[in-house]
Every structure is written in C-alpha cells, then in structure tokens.
Amino acid sequence: xxxxxxxxxxxxxxxxxxxxxxxxDDHDQEWGVPSHDDRHLFEMLILEGAQAGxxxxxxxxxxxxxxxxxxxxxxxxxxxxxxxRQQALLQDPGxxxxxxxxxxxxxxxxxxxxxxxxxGSFDALLWSFVDGRPVDHRLQDDDQTPVYDATSTALSxxxxxxxxRFVGPIICYSLMQTLGLVNDHILRCFxxxxxxxx
Length: 198
Fold this sequence. Notes:
Elements (H helix, E strand, L loop, with lengths): L20 H9 L8 H14 L4 H6 L1 H7 L5 H5 L3 H7 L9 H21 L2 H7 L6 E2 L13 H12 L7 H10 L3 E2 L6 H7 L2
Parallel strand pairs: 1-2
Helix pairs in contact: 2-7, 2-10, 9-10
C-alpha cells in the first residue's frame, strides 16, 4: 500500500505529491478541480504539452515564466504571435526553450481560437468527451491510475484532427486529470471528496 501521509498536517494525500511542497500545493489547490474557464483550459493544455519528456515540477517552476511569455495565456493574443516573437521566445529562460514546443503553443492557440469560433468555447468541446460530468475512478491506490484510456485517446484524435500538436493520449489523460474531467485522487486522499463535491 502506498504511503500517503508525509506532511505535518497529517492529511492523507496521493503519493505522487509527497516528495515536494510545490507538487503538494498543486495537488491540494488545483489538481482535479473541474474547470470550465477557457483561459485556464488553454493554460493547462499548453503546460501539459510543455511537460512532454519532463517532470511536472519543472513546469510548475516555470509557470510564471509561461504566463509572462504567453500573454497570460490569452489564446487570441498568442495566436497572433509572429516569427519575430517566436524567435524571442527561443531566448526566454523562463520557459522551456524547445522550438517544436514553442511552435506548437502558437499553433495550438490558433486551433484553440478556431474551436471557440466553431463550438462556442473550448470548454464545450473538451467536456463533451465525459458528457459534461467528471468521471470518478474511485482509485484505491496510485498504482491503479491509468496513463491513458479510451476517452483520452478519442480526445487526442479529435484535437489532432483540429490541428493541435503535443496532444497524444497520455498528455490528454494528464490534461483530463488536471482539469477535473476525471477524479483520480485516491479514495483515502482528503481531496477526493472535496473535488467530487465540486
């Protein structure tokens, strides 16, 4: 059984956040909370894509840098970034300076705006994959957590069809966890019932 109580407050938590206060704060405050705000959805889409091949902690450490570099995650503004701005981002130490990821962020902003125009909001498209309601996996332990599933695979396929990049099934599953489309807090975790209650 995974040990889930490591902090001075004695609360039970998912084991993935035990080793680090930054991860714990993310777990306690944001991870798994259902989100319907398009700007926040865009932020998490970009950060999850940036994480590819890296740790979530490394992205959280740069979150403020990403907010500054990408106009507070305003997709309409990022969609208008030109080649000059892209070159400047490659020199920005506050973000992951990976050309493919930076290009994908700008391209994803354009695809995101297109979804908003076609569907009314990105939220409408995203949450349609779970019929508008979070799926509670009622996990007994962290080792039961999938890395992807049929829903994230379908979401990945649809986002790719619409021109998004860095949206494979594993990234999409992480996005679903972060944004509360699935409740993957283990049952013993104090956040499980809080998140389930909305």
